[in-house]
User: Fold these one by one.
Assistant:
Number 1:
Amino acid sequence: MTHPFLDLAPLSADRFASIEDRVARLLGTEQDVVIMQGEALLPLEGAIRATAGPGTTALNVITGPYGQTFGDWLRDCGATVHDLSVPYHTAVTAEQVREAFAAHPEIDFVSLVHAEAATGNTNPVAEIGEAVREQGALFYLDAVASIGAEPVLPDAWGVDLCVIGAQKAMGGPAGVSAVSVSERAWARMAANPRAPRRSYLSLLDWKERWIDGGRKTLLHAPAQLEMLALEACVERIEKTGLDAVTARHRSAAAATRAGVPALGLGLEPYVHKASEAAPVATTVRVPADVTASGLVARALAADPALPLAAGGGSLAKEMIRVNHYGPDATRETVEAAVTALGSALAAERGTPADLEGARRAVAEAWRQ
């Protein structure tokens, strides 16, 4: 008997190219868009290894764990790396980036994460992009968490390599990703003798064997289910409207930031300023006498479906993430997550939480 997930007709090169075109429209870009057949770490690493080498001097902005990873990759490529680190409860500024350029005028590569879902902050890419253009450096952006939750405009912002994934705010599959590539970035890759070739990491393979060939012959058999899921995901966003999708994520973030402190138990947004908080996920700081991972475990024991997670590594003690992205960017989900945290903390402390006040705060923030 046939099976809808298994007995599928082969995905044609034309269909593959049409999905790339829809992703390009989602990004509002005229640059080449390459859909990579793997999770977003594939193009994130591939883009760095293609464009960085011993002659590269990079400014690597660290506002969370992914920035640290990018610095490791850049150093592994032989690049000279200057890290610009800011506290995880804030965002980097364009002025800090300009100060780094002034201190190191040889910088020719900038790596930045747009929204750090792991720490809950988001960086002002438009302003930073202006500073990078003034420097003339190549601009590499991780927009995996931000796409669908807030505007991502690689052309307008001067981004040369913009990597996205579908598994967060887009509400799509995790096993496929994409990167938009500027002509400057292609030229940098072609001039880099260390750029991966004949490799799963290779962007140049896609350029030379797919794009330059008129997108007629795929490099290898595509991840068919993931490609079809990506197509369906983009189609759903097109029907809903990208502005409506991003507005829903903004509302979810505002509602979470309003609801958490209204519980009256000392929980508060981890990122201090709302303007620096990522719409894709809200991080919450727990009181000093509470362990975040234990509180999350208690809340999930009552409802395992809640989009809650403790912070990673050293943040597991003090930070909780409310992952209100994709299908979870709803008022109902935010309210359930906030009240679950309140109930769990109230039970742990033996102190009542103002659950009704939190519900009102969530509803009011959502309406605004």
Note: The mean pLDDT is 97.
Number 2:
Amino acid sequence: MDKRIILKAFRQNKLAVICAVLLLFIIIVSLLASLSPYDPDAMNVQERLEGMSGKHWFGTDDLGRDTLTRALYGGRVSLMVGFAAMIVAVIFGTLIGTVSGYAGGKVDIVCMRIVDVFLSVPSLLCIIVVYAFMPQNMVTLIFMLAFFSWTKVARVVRAQTLTLKERDFVLAAKALGVKDRTIIWKHIIPNLMPQIIVAGSLSIANAILDESALSFLGYGVQLPQASWGSMLQTAQQYILYNPVMAVVPGVMILLTVLCFNILGDILQQILDPKLVK
């Protein structure tokens, strides 16, 4: 599908443009969080639990830290975890899905049974159990999230690979004696890019939600480092006294995840020729 057609269809969808602009704004302000005059970890007990004011637009938390500044720095962490986990999950899921769908037979059966096992277990519970016995750092968190999210990508890729391997251009490549790995790399995967892009956008949203849930439970990003989930964990004790502490990170999670999910659905409609009118 021509890039110009995709961009034109994207621009004509007002909801897609709004979500893209909103996501871009959240990413930019998170990256520019260092321009804030406040240190996200600097405590000032004299200003603890202050309400919204000209000095602190969204008030302060229980240790006198600026809520907006911590939300921006937390956005860096949550978005970085989401994008990194998505990249690992998409790469691994794409490789497993293409090999499984293209090879078929016993290879496909074994790969899909492994996928079924991963899908049948509660991922958050398993992550908590495994995370308790491993170094609690960002790298571990990213790989744990990717470890339990690649299966969804693999299923989507495998289903499309089963269709693509029967197309004429693949059969012609086989007839010419092209090696299987070359067919997968140069013919199958490039034609899977629309599905991979959609699966990746949805994986980011799921990774951000999972990271926020884990941090809220105390198993994700560790305090005093800010993330949206850890901010919610702190805010639950003061929800009746200073609800803004919970509203700010909660709204950031809601908007980010909602925009990624909406963009994923819209991209699927634009990139899938069967759905394009």
Note: Residues 67-103 form the longest helix (37 residues).
Number 3:
Amino acid sequence: MSPISFIAAILATAVAATALPVPQLGEIRTFKDWTAGCDNGGNCQAVSLMSEEGGAGFDDWGGPISIVRSARSDDIFKIRVQFEAKGMDRYRMMIDGDLVDTGPIVQGDYPIEIVGQDARKVAQAIIKGKLVVIKGPKGENLTRASLAGSSAALRYIDEKQRRAGTDTALVSRGSRTFKPENVEVPMIIVDQWESASLVPEADALVALAEDSKCKDERYGLVEDQAYPLGRRGDLYRALVLISCGSGAYNFSSAPYIGEHRKDGPEGWTFKPAEFDRQPKWGGEGSQPLLVNAGWDEREQTLSSYGKGRGLGDCGSAESYVWDGERFRMTDASAMDECRGAYEWITVWRAKYRKLENAASPAK
């Protein structure tokens, strides 16, 4: 490596390693049959849950209703409904027997999405109501949800977004003018190394697994994985995921970073991967553990998705980007209640930008 390249590499590593605050995840609160939470950028969401008392079971539950609102000056406001569309073209939303909204059903993740002033009108009916029923064009039941706790959930959002006492609040209305803070989410600078394909051989992975905390958790069919992280000069790095136990719907992996110096005498060496905030499944203060891990080799992003039960209506998920030295959290979502809410609440967001493309749009 030339002296200029060597200095450039040191500077790049220093920039990528610039200290950022440890991600502080937003709190999720449950209010009877609704749950609500916000992320670090001020975006909040309230989601309906299956009723615990006197409510219908899954036969009447097509999916949750979620109310989404941003805290910025753009004030994005949406009400979304999840269910299986089944080729239907229109819906009717009834609250306590009264028609409050009707419109087209579209194909996609959210067959019903109400926005703007229409969403505010429906939200006011939700706050005052007891039961919402959404029907198809022939009177078919698409989904229904208890509204117990919806007012408290939206009041919580008013408070978290500092709307309480202002003219934009949904529940805690007042006469003050709302002044949005426009909080910026963190920007992560990514120092992505030169592309390379070198990864540890299978025998090195077996030796690592035998020397890892996962040794006694490996039973049945196990599959260890290795992915290249690139090269800088004569130093190569790789991400290694060691199989670390499995259940009916969750498959655990322990992440390691492998290093190999070309023509070096030691071969590959390994150490546990570092995270700015540990994946929830492993817990703070312990070696990281991923669940149902996913890896995007081009972007060098890593994901963990742990389901609380097979239905996937509760659990936690995190996404990270490799900054050249450690994994930094770019997204986190969770659903604490196992009550039919397939719409998890985002509790952390960050952007990232590759160092060599600093002028390009953020991810």
Note: DSSP finds four helices and 22 strands in the chain.
